[in-house]
Amino acid sequence: MRIGVLAVQGAFIEHRQILESLGTETFEIRQLADLNEPMDGVIIPGGESTVIGKLLTDLGMMEPLKEKIQAGLPVFGTCAGMILLADKIENPTQKQVNLGTMDITVVRNAYGRQLGSFHATADFGPSKEVPMTFIRAPYISEVGPKAEILSEVDGHIVAARQDNQLVTAFHPELTQDTRVHEYFLNSIG
Ligand code: GLN
After folding, report:
1. Which pTM was predicted?
2. To test the ligand 1 pocket, which listed residue (6, 43, 49) has its Cβ within 8 A of the most ligand atoms?
3. pLDDT for 137 beyond 70
4. Residue 85 phi/psi, 5° resolution?
5. Which helix (H) or strand (E) holds 21?
6. Residues with catalytic annotation?
């Protein structure tokens, strides 16, 4: 199995480390040509969704990546990556550009300033008590009929899947717990 990790901005190294520790080959997607590499799935990491969106547009990667996801390429978006996959953002900054392939509505920076960063423990799909790190995190305010909710924290949806797309508002790559990445890999398997 070979997973591409979008590496234009944000926390991509940690995703590579976790996947490699699980015996999965990874490579970095930094430019358009990298999208032609053979891959079984792609990770869109956390970072700043407006910056990643702008870079994807400037590098000519937005449409090709969107087409691959719409054609069924498995994708896992964390935090900013989740925002990029959402087809609706309740509070976008002006001119925010998105992949918009997943039928969910998200709220950016949803926890306000005081709760900019926090930890929680919650169930994720079949996994019990998964440690979760939130950093200026969004949450999902609405999911479409095709999406399945995988995790909720304090009444807010923080993980969901829809067909080939998986999203988490938290950063599983910043904990030692590998179950969320394993869930993604198993969904491809
Ligand atoms: N607040 C960021 C955004 O809107 C996401 C934060 C993160 O990825 N840790 O893009």
Report:
1. 0.96
2. 49
3. yes
4. -85, -20
5. helix 13-21
6. 79, 171, 173
